[in-house]
Amino acid sequence: MAALAASRRLLLLLRPELEPCLRSRALNPCSGRARWAGGLRRAPPLVSCRRDFSDEGSAYAAKNSAPDEQFLQLSLDEGEGDGVVPGISESVVKDAKKSAIELLAVRAYSVSELRKKLCGKNYSADTVDSVIADFKSRGLLNDGYYAESFSRSRWQSSTWGPRRIKQALRQKGVPEAEADQATRSVFQDDRGDEDQASHGFSEASMDHLFAQASKQWLRGSSLPMEKRRARIVRWLQYRGFSWGVTNSIIRKLEAQHPP
Length: 259
Description:
Subcellular location: Cytoplasm
Number of domains: 2
Structural class: mainly alpha
Distance between the termini: 56 Å
Main location: cytoplasm
Helix content: 55-70%
Largest sheet: none
Number of strands: 0
Family: Belongs to the RecX family.
Domain RecX third three-helical: 206-249
Domain RecX first three-helical: 96-133
């Protein structure tokens, strides 16, 4: 069931104009799929980049589920000839697209990551470039949204700071401009107050960080003050926070949680 749902979403991403057809099929009791009577909800145009991330990226479908072959074939048949570069076999491009869909059905990829995966399957550079260009034009690949979703997930689930997030995005091949924009959208807001100007963090972001740091601070309550302070410094620096943010958090911790 999860595999079928995933394949339908992928098909709608590739060929959104097929939604009326799929909806009518879902409502047809003779099709054997009357349980879809609620109709299909159109998937967001950039599912691969807007969902929450696991350790390696966001999942389109349940782990280890494969896209339904019937819908994969239909999506490829409908897109046959799209974006094919002269001199490249259409069957090879179709096969490469199928491989890319199967990869994206498991988790999100940056453009660079997907390119490496396809090249690792021994497709030619021209074939891979054709698939990448086609998927970007369809909205299946977008480094900007990928970077923002990755940044927000790492900040909320692991309390990573901008520097560590940017380092991870660079390793994934995300351009620096996209990484900078993503971290600004996560850590800053439109208010532009004094603290944000000096630390690059909104008030809400600082409050969230302080709440997480407080847990670490209280766990070290039995330690001498110097060791306690050094422990928090290491915790913040390891996660990629600047010294300005680190110092501000420590001063607030000492004021609100005195020994």
